[in-house]
């Protein structure tokens, strides 16, 4: 585990240095026009506000569901080839798959994957 | 030698390898696109009048970015703005610690494996780390407080987490076949033959998973035709407010992610450092080891070149088409592949 | 608790003039709801040079360097239109060979504009191979122009009474050589973009035009022909020698961006075909009727409207003279004015922001000709 520690420290230091080094090396110049957000060279129409459509939220939820399922499946998949009683494992996994597919079909049918 | 020293040397070598590859990846991309587009590509950077096909170009680019102004706009959330590129660079380059580069070599009486760590959960670790790098993108776009950057951030997030699902599902079917998550064991498993002539590589055992993995991998690295987060002709990209070396770190991270995915594809699907039938040639074990290490590099390089190549022959997808491809095509295919693999393995 | 209305979810922002996806100097004020555009307002004025007003203060011949800059990439249509208007008003006869040469120049100019457009539409979709190729191939046509006229973009070659000089020795063979090269290269473009599955997927059904808008707004050119309207000035009111050439009007029925792209793709073939016909049938003879001293050249009072088929649609010049040595009024009908204002503003609601810049290029808007 020492290796991981060294790697984290090493890569962390490198990342910090590389992203901040030009603060010491580079020039500095002040200009009020640099302090406006980029909007194609036009004056701002309205201030920035965090607003996004719900579809992004649905994507996040769908991702959460399937990634948790995947993390359960990882362990199941790991031992499948090695165990002697494969049939039980297959049946258990099959039940799990039925749930996954039902959930997937439900989201699909409800229009969770429509982006218009 | 102490464990500390060996680990440190390994990390430095890995880092140097990664940086050189990433820097020259930028040149490779420019040269490759130049060949496709009937151009010369970068060939002007020279030292003492020696330009030699732009071989110094990456260093010229890097130096230029180092000496740019370190500009952070006033309206941005400064701490997060500074932190975001560090985060994505850190996590995406940390993936390399779990990648094996060849068979263990003997120096004196010590056996040194060409891999920093070989944990039992290597694959989970890799995917966890590479998913973490999305936080850098989210933080960067959000803290910029720019409407274009925010649009790009939302797109990047949605795209990457969507393709993560297909990626993981295709990897699960691989884990089922290999029955291990250690990358070293996975390569060892592939160093065998089916029916005596076909290498037992992932690409032959799981062709469907390979296709899903490679498409999802291109989407994960935010490269064309899936470069929607940075599509410069629509929304200028999530890093629109970034400049200088911070922007450079984002660019470099893109290449590092691509390198990591080509390493993974090589290890998982293309037999790692296995070169078919080399053990039947009667070479000595040390020679075989050396050739295999070089072979691994060449394989990675070819996969990387292929991932670059796709960019220059496809127009960009639209966002809804991208999501449809991810959820309605790749995820069902990978689930189907998973079920078929499970049944085949369970009944064998 | 605060109630969220639809307005809260909307984001207003500017696209252009400093935007990689907008061609030229124009700007759009867009309203976004998520990724979907709800409205757009075109802003122009970044490129206003008052050419129409300037022309009223200058001699007839002095206006040629101005008219060729009205649409930057396609200067010959403007020159030809203005020259034809002056010829109609002053009654100068144009020699037969000059008409053929003019048509040749117009078609070459159309061809280079189409090559440029290929680059534009592929570039906005993130495929940067096609722009590199097409700009490279366009350069062969520009080389021909350079040899013929001395200029690559602004030619000032077509003057009242004919053209400035005859074709150089062996020019026809060099044109044919470039045409052969292009015909050999075009299948590559088909493979790269026009037959590309993603290209089709991106363009089909996008920016669907209601056929009733065509006459209402004044949509012309490939955009109208993509809606099945067989309208082409080259055929309707043949100018120069288009009545002596053999060709059919190209139409498609999709009304969407893909049909427009396919109309333009087929018109590239048509232009190559026309150039071959022109070179085959071109007669010998004079190329210029000498004008009176142009510094004191007065044109009798009158007014005329001449029009021609530019690459993007119907291009027209309305010229009024009052007997002096300067035009009383010159008004230009730019194709992009109805396209980029009315049509785009109608097309946009419900469109994805990804398709916005594709639609701008797909309609071939040309900002310099919106503001003359």
List the helices and strands and how they pair.
The complex is a heterotrimer of chains A (116), B (348) and C (372).
Chain A: H1 2-20, H2 22-25, H3 54-80, H4 86-109
Chain B: H1 3-36, H2 57-66, H3 78-94, E1 105-107, E2 110-112, H4 122-132, H5 134-144, H6 147-178, H7 183-190, E3 193-194, E4 198-199, H8 202-205, H9 207-220, H10 244-269, H11 285-311, H12 319-347
Antiparallel strand pairs in B: 1-2, 3-4
Chain C: H1 6-9, E1 10-15, E2 27-33, E3 36-43, H2 51-55, H3 64-67, H4 75-90, H5 96-124, H6 129-149, E4 158-159, E5 162-163, H7 171-194, H8 197-203, H9 211-218, H10 221-225, H11 233-236, H12 257-281, E6 302-309, E7 314-321, E8 327-333, H13 336-347, H14 353-362, H15 367-370
Antiparallel strand pairs in C: 1-2, 2-3, 4-5, 6-7, 7-8
Helix pairs in contact in C: 4-5, 5-6, 5-12, 5-14, 6-7, 7-12
Overview of the structural elements:
The complex is a heterotrimer of chains A (116), B (348) and C (372). In chain A, α3 packs antiparallel against α4. Chain A is an all-alpha fold and 116 residues long. Chain A has four helices and no strands. With 348 residues, chain B is mainly α. Chain B has two domains: 67 residues, no CATH class; 197 residues, no CATH class. Chain B contains twelve helices and four strands, in the order αααββααααββααααα. In chain B, the strands form two sheets. Chain B has a two-stranded antiparallel ribbon with strand order 1-2. In chain B, strands 3-4 form a two-stranded antiparallel ribbon. With 372 residues, chain C is of the alpha+beta class. Chain C has a single domain, classed as Cytochrome-c3 Hydrogenase, chain B (Orthogonal Bundle). Chain C contains 15 helices and eight strands. Chain C has a three-stranded antiparallel β-sheet. In chain C, strands 6-7-8 form a three-stranded antiparallel β-sheet. Chain C has a two-stranded antiparallel sheet with strand order 4-5. In chain C, α5 runs antiparallel to α6, α6 packs antiparallel against α7 and α7 packs antiparallel against α12. The chains are: A mainly alpha (116), B mainly alpha (348), C alpha+beta (372).
């Amino acid at each position: 585990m020492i290796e991981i520690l060294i790697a984290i420290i090493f890569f962390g230091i490198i990342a910090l240095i590389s992203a901040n080094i030009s603060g010491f090396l580079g020039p500095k110049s002040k200009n009020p026009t640099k302090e406006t957000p980029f909007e194609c060279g036009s004056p701002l129409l309205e201030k920035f506000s965090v607003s996004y459509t719900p579809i992004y939220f649905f994507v996040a939820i769908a991702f959460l569901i399937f990634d948790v399922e995947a993390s359960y499946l990882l362990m199941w998949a790991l031992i499948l080839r090695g165990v002697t009683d494969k049939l039980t494992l297959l049946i258990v996994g099959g039940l799990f798959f039925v749930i996954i597919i039902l959930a997937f079909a439900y989201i699909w049918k409800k229009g969770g994957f429509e982006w218009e | 030698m102490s464990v500390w020293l060996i680990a440190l040397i390994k990390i430095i070598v890995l880092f140097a390898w990664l940086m050189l590859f990433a820097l020259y990846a930028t040149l490779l991309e420019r040269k490759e696109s130049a060949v496709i587009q009937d151009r010369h590509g970068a060939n002007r950077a020279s030292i003492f009048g020696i330009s030699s096909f732009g071989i110094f170009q990456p260093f010229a680019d890097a130096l230029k970015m180092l000496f740019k102004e370190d500009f952070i706009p006033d309206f941005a959330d400064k701490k997060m703005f500074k932190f975001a590129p560090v985060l994505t660079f850190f996590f995406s380059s940390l993936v390399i610690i779990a990648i094996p580069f060849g068979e263990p070599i003997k120096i004196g009486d010590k056996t040194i494996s060409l891999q920093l760590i070989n944990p039992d959960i290597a694959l989970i670790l890799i995917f966890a780390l590479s998913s973490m790098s999305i936080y850098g993108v989210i933080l960067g776009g959000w803290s910029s407080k720019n409407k274009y950057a925010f649009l790009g951030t939302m797109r990047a997030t949605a795209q990457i987490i969507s393709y993560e699902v297909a990626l993981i599902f295709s990897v699960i079917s691989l884990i089922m076949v290999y029955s291990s998550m250690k990358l070293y064991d996975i390569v060892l498993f592939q160093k065998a033959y089916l029916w005596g002539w076909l290498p037992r590589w992932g690409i032959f055992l799981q062709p469907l998973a390979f296709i899903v993995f490679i498409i999802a991998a291109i989407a994960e690295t935010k490269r064309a035709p899936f470069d929607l987060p940075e599509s410069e002709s629509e929304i200028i990209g999530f890093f629109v407010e970034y400049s200088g070396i911070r922007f450079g770190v984002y660019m470099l991270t893109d290449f590092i992610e691509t390198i990591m995915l080509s390493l993974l594809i090589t290890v998982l699907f293309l037999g790692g450092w296995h070169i078919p039938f080399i053990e039947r040639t009667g070479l000595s074990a040390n020679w075989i080891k050396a050739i295999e290490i070089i072979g691994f590099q060449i394989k990675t390089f070819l996969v990387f070149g292929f991932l670059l190549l796709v960019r220059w022959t496809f127009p960009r997808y639209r966002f809804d088409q991208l999501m449809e491809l991810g959820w309605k095509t790749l995820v069902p295919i990978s689930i189907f592949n998973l079920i078929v693999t499970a049944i085949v393995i369970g009944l064998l | 608790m605060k109630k969220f209305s639809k307005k809260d979810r909307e984001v207003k922002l500017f696209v252009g003039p400093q935007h990689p996806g907008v061609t030229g100097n124009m700007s759009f004020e867009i309203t976004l709801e998520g990724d979907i555009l709800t409205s757009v307002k075109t802003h122009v004025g970044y490129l206003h040079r008052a050419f129409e007003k300037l022309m009223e203060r200058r001699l007839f011949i002095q206006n040629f360097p101005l008219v060729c800059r009205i649409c930057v990439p396609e200067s010959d249509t403007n020159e030809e239109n203005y020259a034809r208007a002056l010829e109609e008003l002053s009654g100068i006869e144009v020699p037969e060979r000059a008409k053929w040469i003019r048509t040749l120049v117009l078609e070459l100019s159309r061809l280079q504009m189409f090559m440029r457009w290929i680059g534009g539409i592929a570039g906005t979709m993130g495929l940067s191979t096609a722009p590199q190729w097409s700009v490279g191939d366009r350069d062969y046509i520009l080389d021909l122009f350079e040899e013929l006229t001395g200029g690559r973009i602004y030619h000032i070659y077509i003057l009242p009474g004919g053209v400035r000089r005859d074709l150089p020795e062996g020019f026809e063979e060099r044109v044919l050589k470039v045409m052969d090269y292009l015909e050999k290269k075009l299948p590559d473009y088909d493979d790269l973009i026009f037959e590309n599955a993603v290209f089709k997927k991106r363009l089909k059904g996008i920016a669907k035009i209601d056929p009733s808008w065509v006459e209402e707004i004044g949509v012309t050119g490939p955009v109208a022909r993509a809606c099945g309207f067989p309208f082409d000035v080259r055929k309707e009111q043949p100018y120069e020698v288009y009545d002596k050439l053999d060709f059919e009007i190209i139409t498609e029925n999709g009304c969407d961006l893909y049909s427009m792209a396919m109309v333009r793709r087929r018109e590239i073939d048509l232009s190559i075909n026309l150039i071959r016909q022109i070179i085959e049938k071109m007669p010998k003879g004079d190329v210029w009727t000498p004008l009176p001293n142009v510094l004191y050249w007065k044109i009798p009072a009158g007014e005329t409207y001449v029009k021609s088929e530019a690459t993007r649609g119907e291009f027209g010049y309305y010229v009024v003279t009052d007997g002096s040595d300067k035009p009383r009024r010159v008004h230009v009908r730019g194709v992009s004015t109805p396209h980029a204002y009315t049509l785009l503003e109608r097309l946009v609601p419900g469109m994805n922001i990804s398709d916005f810049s594709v639609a701008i290029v797909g309609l071939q808007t040309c900002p310099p000709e919106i503001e003359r």
